[in-house]
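Notebook p. 47: complex prediction with ribulose-5-phosphate.
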Amino acid sequence: MNCLSPSILASDFSKLGSQVELLDRAGAQYVHIDIMDGMFVPSISMGFPVMKSIRPLTDRIFDVHLMIQEPERYINEFVDAGADLLTVHAEACTNLERTIQKIKEKGIIAGVAIKPSTPVEQIAGVLKEVDMVLVMMVNPGFGGQKLIPGTIDKVWELKQMINEMGLETDIEVDGGVTLDNVGKVMDAGANIVVAGSAIFHGDVEDNVRQFLSYMSE
Ligand SMILES: O=C(CO)[C@H](O)[C@H](O)COP(=O)(O)O
Ligand SMILES: [Co+2]
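Predicted complex, C-alpha cells below:
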C-alpha cells in the first residue's frame, strides 16, 4: 500500500497540535517524526515530551525516524512515547541485528535507514528482519534540502534485492521529495513517501491531498 508520511520537522511548532490534526483530517496515513541528537547528525530536534503531547490527537501511525547514536538505548522510551514504527540508522548501531530484534520484541514495526553514501548491500543481512527500509535522499540532519539524484538508483537497486529475496519489505524515501519528483521515486519502488517542506509550505491540507491523489494513480 502507498502511504504518505508528512514530516512535522517542517511544521510550525507554535501550532504543532493543530497541524497534526490537519494532517489526519486530510488523510495522511503516517506522521513522520524526526529525532536528532546533535551527535549522529549536527542538529537537535525534539524528544519524548513532544511526542507524548501529540499522541492523543491522532490514531495515525507514528513513524519515528531516529537519527541518534546507539538508538538501542532508547527503544523502550520511544515505544512508551507512542511510536508505532521505529527506524534506526544502520550507521548508528554497534549491533544492528540486536537493535532491530529489540524493536520487534516491543511488538511494533521495525525499520532500518541508510544515508545516501551507504550502499544497499550493507543492510542485506538484516533485510529479512525488518518491515521497512528508509532510503535517505538527502544527508540526514536538516529539512528543506534538494533530493540527491543518485539516490533514486539506490531505490531501484533495493527494490530488486527485495524482489530477489522474495520479500515484501516497504521502501520509504525521505528528504527532498516534492510533487515534481514523487512519481520518479515511486516508479523506482518506494511505497512510503516522507515529505516535509513540500507539505508545510502553503496550504497543508491541499498539499496532503495533492500528494495522496498523485500517489494513488
Ligand atoms: O529526516 C529528515 C531530515 O534528516 C526529514 O524527514 C526530511 O528532511 C524531510 O524533510 P524535507 O521533505 O523538507 O526534505
Ligand atoms: Co526523516
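Notes: Residues 7, 9-10, 32, 34, 65, 67, 138, 140-145, 174-177, 194-198 surround ribulose-5-phosphate (ligand 1) (CB under 6 Å). The chain has eight helices and eight strands.
Next step: compare against the earlier run before touching the bench.
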